[in-house]
Design brief:
With about 500 residues, the chain is mainly α. The protein has a domain of about 80 residues. It is built from 24 helices and 5 strands. The strands form 2 sheets. Strands 4-3-5 form a 3-stranded antiparallel β-sheet, with no helix packed on it.
Length: about 500
């Protein structure tokens, strides 16, 4: 408000001063005489001031016209001028508008529109590092792989976009199944950007798939060094790679080098069950059962596992059941309430013909965690204690449809594996196998009804006049191919127990 009043007062004052000045000039008697050749001009004071102002304005206009003509000449010569900058700004505005429209079309799934807008943006902007990205992605969405590859190759020419080009071609080769070329491209992309997590994971998976364990360990070390992978995770995965490398060396027959690799894998991750088993085997080959016992006991403290128990048994394969029960206290003193420890103790007592101790060791596991193995052990205990066939059959009937218990399951795709492996055979994920109970309905025993005659005595034949009973068809449970009746604990223990009972 005050500023507006001030401007009004200032304007009125200016008009007043101008009027006073004009009046003063008109009252002045003097003037200006201008003579040009034979011409003579006499101007009053006010007229002289007006003429001078018009002259200054004319000179200013003349200079502007000359400047404009000079700019036109420079523009025609290709020099940067105000005119060229004006047209450049206009083209830039149109180019960025087309670029924005292309991005919106790409996000909306309109790949053809996106490619057209990218071409228009390139026409105005001449920024291939921007427009080629949109064109390549739009071509991928449209299924035009050839055009996408052509654009990716253009990106290789610019150092700023070279990584994007290599990565794009690498993904195309992966989709085509050309893993050899894809791995070379992944190595190139990883060298360009060691911190890029996805590229490092792809390279690591490809190297693991091709059994290039040394290369995979080198890649893993680079990921840890650049901070792309936490140190603890890197250490665990390095142990996995070292373990698989040791297995391959064992198969090649280089036992000395294999032992060193197995022991290294165990030191990197003592809780890695396959690594502990292989390290124990290596120590046994060096005639060092003490270290083998220590390695297996340390792994058992973290996660009891039947493979650890089997490796521990292999330390003294010819010992008596009583001596074995005593020696196994090095394991069973840890994780006493763990189901694996309880079942191991039950098996050891069954082998020692101490069925009451086996029942005590197993406790209520058959009710709280009724797996095939626990129920088969109860059947063996029942038979060993002199129970009738009906009671044994009852336990075995439950075992037929019970869960198999923990298995090697991929955390990513839930595929069940018979043995541990560094890479999932189904989805190709690295270090995703965990020892756990699979999803409900998976891992049932195959052909459970066929194993019953192997475990118990056959029932007496029915009387001739008895009505003929059709055998009940047992439906094969889902994922039955993962289980094998020859591998079940029941089929191993029950015949032995039955033979002892018959004696």
């Amino acid at each position: 408000m005050l500023w507006s009043m001030f401007k009004i007062v200032l304007f009125v004052a200016f008009v007043a001063v101008a009027a006073l000045g004009a009046g003063w000039l008109m009252e002045t008697g003097g003037g200006v005489r201008i003579a040009v050749g034979a011409l003579e001009f006499n101007l009053g004071a006010l007229q002289a001031v007006i003429a001078f102002a018009l002259f200054v304005l004319a000179v200013w206009l003349l200079l502007k016209i000359v400047s404009l003509l000079a700019a036109v000449v420079h523009f025609l010569n290709g020099d940067e001028t105000a005119i060229s900058r004006y047209f450049d700004r206009n083209r830039e505005r149109k180019g960025y508008e087309a670029l924005a429209d292309g991005l919106m079309a790409l996000a909306s799934g309109e790949e053809r529109v996106a490619m057209a807008k990218a071409a228009r943006a390139e026409k105005f902007l001449h920024r291939p590092e921007l427009t080629n990205l949109i064109t390549a992605q739009a071509a991928e969405m449209a299924g035009d792989r050839k055009k996408a590859e052509v654009v990716y190759k253009r990106l290789l020419q610019d150092e700023r976009t070279r990584f994007v080009g290599v990565r794009g071609i690498m993904k195309q080769r992966l989709e085509e199944g050309d893993t050899e070329t894809a791995m070379k491209l992944a190595e190139k992309a990883f060298a360009l950007k060691p911190r890029h997590g996805e590229t490092g994971d792809i390279l690591l998976a490809l190297q693991a798939t091709r059994n290039d364990w040394a290369g995979a360990r080198k890649t893993l070390g680079a990921k840890v060094k650049t901070g792309a992978l936490p140190k603890d995770v890197g250490k665990r995965r390095d142990a996995v790679l070292a373990l698989q490398e040791a297995k391959d060396i064992f198969e090649e027959g280089n036992s000395i080098r294999a032992r060193e690799a197995a022991i290294e894998a165990n030191k990197l991750s003592p809780d890695l069950i396959p690594g502990a088993v292989l390290a124990a085997k290596s120590y046994l080959e060096q005639d060092n059962p003490r270290y083998a016992t220590r390695v297996l006991a340390k792994a058992w403290q973290v996660s009891p596992h039947p493979d650890l128990a089997a490796a521990f048994a292999a330390i003294e394969p010819d010992e008596t059941p009583e001596a074995r029960l005593k020696r196994f206290k090095a394991l069973t003193k840890y994780q006493k309430e763990h189901p694996e420890t309880r079942m191991l103790l039950a098996e050891l007592h069954i082998a020692d013909n101490d069925f009451s101790a086996a029942r005590k060791a197993l406790g209520d596991l058959a009710e709280t965690d009724p797996t095939q193995r626990a129920l088969a052990l109860m059947a063996a205990i029942e038979r060993g204690e002199g129970g009738d066939d009906e009671a044994v059959r009852a336990w075995l009937a439950r075992a037929v449809t019970a869960s198999r218990g923990p298995q090697w399951v991929c955390d990513k795709c839930n595929q069940i594996h018979a043995d541990w492996a560094p890479v999932c055979s189904n989805c190709g994920a690295f270090d995703t196998l965990s020892w756990k109970v699979p999803a409900e309905g998976e891992g049932r025993i195959h052909g459970g009804a066929e194993m019953l005659p192997l475990l118990v005595a056959k029932p007496e034949p029915t009387a001739p006049d008895a009505p003929k009973v059709e055998p009940e068809t047992v439906a094969e449970p889902p994922h039955a191919d993962y289980a094998d009746p020859d591998e079940t604990v029941a089929s191993e223990l029950a015949p032995e127990v039955e033979a002892r009972h018959d004696k």
